[in-house]
Task: inverse folding
């Protein structure tokens, strides 16, 4: 056999989807997403009110993670009963609308890591989505923004933070390229976010101790940098233990700062310590540690390691399973979808649907409001250029993915105000000035290339002094007030007061624009099947469906009008002809209430071209109007049946035309020009010529047509509206009338 | 069942006027005017031990036992200065402390701050670290 290469495979190899690496499973290196052959089997033995054996390991062989989980994360009163239920029964409870979220949580509180992994192995992705819809902790899902820029320009950061607030993000996270800029970046994010929407929570991802200091200054309202790992060697590489991470959760809470942990499939394998266990089993150990530490939530879903599970079979399913496990254990879930997961937009979107459709507390752990090059989190999975795709998908599916449509002028005004507010704060607090030129650039910028350069040495020195000095968020409040930004000052101050109250330390807490907290405590997810839980309706649906680019359908087409350049006068009912002729039959709206085809050709010109074509072949033509129908086949065949030659041309007012022949079935025909938007006068002339050829027994070449499959996409609404006009003109009683045609 | 007054969540809606900051200053006194005149200190913006205990109770009653335990530790830590907290964190990191150093830290914060839960948490870590090799080298 001759070795050859397929041209189709060659094209496939060039596709985005094939820029990725796919590998088969290799459990000994931890390259397996679920159900590793060496995963422990579920077991639990208790004695004297304590766990003495778990997942096949006796207490004496417990590592520190097992010890932490056994001590803090498993409800000993429920454990034996829950373990006896069997994994399949528990899996079915997850998808059963007759079993409440709280009942499932009660069972999960008594399960060991291996048992939870076994429960997940029974579920396909649709079942996981059904379960997530019920197990999500907060009633309403939201989204989290990533806000950064390459130049670390505080003015642009504030403008982007303001836009993110306006777009509906409930949390905003920034990070730094140069760590010393952290105080200014946290400040710009705080001020900008409150301009965009009061009550948006903010955080800065930086080194743990610095993070805590910034939070203590009141410049950050939450933290999600507490990473945990599923094996002790990985933990030690991070210079922590379950107990040291756990105490940080208490430390943040003691300062009134919300925190969530970070974990995710693949990190242990990537660090070289997967120990032969599946990524999901390891992640379940992490999630149980998070729960045991008493954190209200976790950001998981593989996070920055996402490409690793996605290189393996059922990687996306395994990642969805980890989101679901966290929710089922009663944790807030910020569900990943933040780090670049694929070259292929189809693959990225498919993965996103698993979290977006059922809804998670935060559909992503960071959705970039800037273009990719300004994303300091290593390039976002979804960014500024994907915003409208996201909004249209929400509208298509009647789903709330956490964002709402915005108008360009509203975005510009909120960006300018965010930029002005940070400019004023810098001026009042004696930081390096932000110029009017920067404010103007930040308002309209695409990315940081559009920003003037700042003197970074001066900025960094001032940021150092701010961090080491006594100034706190209170000074920011005073500065905003002095500069006349009273409403922004009040929001920043209220964010500080909320630290005194601590309401937002609870599971899945966010604020609305009045700073009323919405958490799993006061707005629990009460989904129990159709008609319950969070439904996209009322104001939310009104917002989601009102895309600014959506038009009033009436605006798509011109008002009804006749064509002044051709006069059609009825001269009586059309009779059967006997000579060699072509009957041109027109749709009922032709030239009388409509005057243009979808290709913007005037009816006068089109009819003239057809008649010219017929005449050029020495054949006579007769024009009739068909009043009893609007279908092009019906119009054409009706004419052909009256034609002395048996040949007729049917012409709809929107421009679709065909050549029909007496005796053919209605949906059969000699030639059809279906692509009305692509037709030219020459097409119609050629159609006339060909009809004349058929009438005289010759066989012409079919009229050539330009094919543009996207035309239907662009013009389907226009087509619907224009055809509706034609249908409205139907007058069955009038039958078919012969027309005298006069061109002007 | 309980002789404690009923606590309704969110505190910001139902108990706003009764809440004071760690400094003892009533929250309602923390107005924009006061801040602008410079009459506010960082401790006016921190949660008190009492408030965090209330939040712990709310978490427990809502079925979030582990969150409640964390907020109980947080309530104890609300009374500790930043340096004390950073010291506890550092001591709990791997290989930083001997068994007896952890026990002594546990006793110290229990007696100084009445931090029984946090003290217990550190004591538990000491046992586990001893059994699983996470103590300072000399003590292994």
Result:
């Amino acid at each position: 056999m001759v070795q050859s290469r397929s041209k189709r495979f060659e094209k496939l190899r060039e596709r985005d989807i094939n820029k990725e690496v796919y590998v088969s499973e290799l459990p000994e290196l931890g390259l397996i997403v679920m159900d590793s052959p060496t995963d422990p089997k579920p077991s639990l033995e208790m004695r004297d009110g304590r766990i003495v054996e778990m997942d096949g390991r006796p207490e004496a062989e417990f590592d520190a993670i097992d010890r932490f989980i056994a001590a803090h994360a498993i409800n000993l009163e429920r454990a034996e009963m829950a373990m006896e239920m069997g994994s399949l029964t528990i899996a079915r409870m997850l998808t059963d609308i007759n079993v409440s979220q709280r009942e499932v949580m009660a069972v999960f509180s008594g399960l060991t890591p291996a048992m939870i992994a076994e429960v997940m192995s029974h579920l396909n992705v649709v079942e996981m989505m059904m379960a997530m819809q019920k197990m999500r902790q907060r009633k309403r899902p939201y989204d989290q923004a990533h806000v950064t820029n390459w130049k670390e320009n505080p003015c642009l950061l504030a403008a982007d933070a303001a836009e993110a607030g306006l777009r509906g993000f409930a949390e905003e996270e920034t990070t730094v390229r140069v760590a010393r800029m952290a105080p200014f970046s946290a400040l710009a994010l705080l001020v900008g976010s409150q301009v965009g929407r009061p009550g948006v929570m903010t955080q800065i991802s930086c080194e743990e101790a610095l993070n805590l200091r910034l939070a203590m200054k009141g410049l950050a309202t939450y933290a999600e940098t507490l990473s945990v790992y599923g094996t002790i060697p990985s933990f030690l590489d991070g210079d922590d233990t379950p107990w040291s991470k756990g105490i940080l959760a208490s430390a943040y809470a003691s300062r009134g700062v919300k925190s969530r942990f970070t974990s995710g499939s693949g990190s242990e394998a990537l660090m070289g310590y997967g120990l032969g266990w599946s990524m999901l089993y390891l992640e379940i150990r992490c999630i149980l540690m998070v729960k045991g530490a008493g954190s209200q939530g976790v950001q998981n879903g593989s996070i920055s390691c996402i490409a690793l599970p996605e290189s393996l079979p059922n990687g996306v399913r395994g990642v969805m399973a980890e989101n679901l496990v966290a929710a089922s254990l009663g944790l807030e879930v910020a569900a990943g979808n933040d780090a670049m997961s694929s070259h292929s937009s189809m693959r990225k979107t498919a993965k996103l649907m698993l979290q977006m459709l059922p809804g998670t507390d935060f559909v992503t752990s960071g959705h970039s409001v800037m273009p990719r090059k300004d994303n300091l989190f290593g390039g976002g999975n979804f960014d500024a250029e994907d915003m409208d795709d996201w909004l249209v998908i929400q509208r298509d599916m009647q789903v709330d993915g956490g964002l709402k449509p915005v108008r360009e002028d509203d975005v510009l005004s909120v960006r300018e105000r965010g930029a002005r507010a940070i400019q004023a704060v810098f001026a009042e607090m004696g930081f390096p000035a932000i110029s009017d030129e920067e404010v103007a650039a930040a308002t309209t910028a695409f990315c940081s290339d559009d920003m003037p350069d700042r003197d970074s040495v001066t900025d960094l020195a001032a940021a150092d002094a701010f961090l080491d000095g006594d100034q706190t968020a209170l000074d920011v409040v005073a500065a905003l007030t002095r500069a006349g930004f009273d409403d922004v000052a009040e929001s920043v101050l209220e964010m500080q007061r909320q630290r005194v109250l601590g309401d937002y330390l609870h599971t899945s807490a966010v604020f609305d624009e009045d700073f009323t907290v919405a958490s799993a405590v006061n707005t629990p997810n009460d989904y129990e099947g159709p008609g319950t839980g969070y439904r996209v309706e009322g104001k939310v649906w009104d917002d989601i469906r009102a895309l600014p680019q959506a038009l009033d359908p009436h605006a798509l087409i011109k008002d009804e009008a006749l064509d002044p350049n051709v006069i059609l006068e009825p001269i009586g009912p059309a009779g059967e002809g006997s000579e060699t002729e072509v009957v041109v039959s027109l749709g009922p709206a032709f030239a009388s209430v409509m005057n243009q085809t979808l290709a913007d050709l005037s009816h006068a010109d089109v009819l003239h071209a057809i008649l010219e074509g017929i005449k050029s072949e020495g054949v006579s033509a007769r024009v009739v109007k068909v009043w009893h129908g609007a279908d092009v086949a019906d119009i054409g065949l009706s004419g052909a049946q009256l034609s002395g030659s048996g040949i007729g041309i049917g012409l709809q007012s929107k421009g679709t035309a065909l050549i029909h022949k007496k005796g053919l079935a209605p949906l059969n025909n000699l030639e059809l020009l279906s692509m009305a938007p692509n037709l030219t006068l020459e097409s119609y002339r050629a159609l006339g010529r060909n009809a004349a050829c058929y009438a005289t027994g010759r066989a012409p070449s079919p009229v050539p047509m330009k094919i543009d499959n996207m035309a239907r996409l662009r013009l389907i609404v226009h087509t619907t509206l224009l055809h509706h006009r034609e249908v409205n003109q139907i007058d069955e009683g009038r039958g078919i009338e012969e027309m005298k045609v006069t061109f002007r | 069942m309980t002789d404690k007054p009923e606590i309704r969540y969110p505190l910001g809606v139902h108990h706003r006027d009764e809440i004071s900051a760690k400094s003892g200053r009533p929250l309602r006194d923390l107005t924009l005017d006061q801040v602008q005149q410079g009459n506010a200190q960082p401790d006016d913006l921190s949660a008190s031990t009492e408030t965090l205990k209330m939040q712990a109770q709310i978490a427990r009653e809502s079925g979030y036992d582990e969150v409640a335990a964390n907020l109980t530790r947080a309530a104890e830590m609300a009374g500790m200065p930043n340096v004390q907290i950073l010291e506890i964190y550092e001591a709990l990191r791997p290989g930083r402390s001997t068994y007896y150093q952890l026990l002594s830290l546990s006793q110290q914060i229990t007696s100084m701050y009445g931090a029984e839960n946090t003290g217990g948490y550190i004591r538990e870590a000491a046992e586990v670290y001893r059994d699983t090799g996470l103590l300072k080298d000399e003590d292994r």
User: Anything to note?
Assistant: Chain A has three domains: 24-135+224-247+262-360, 138-220+366-376+399-537, 556-743.
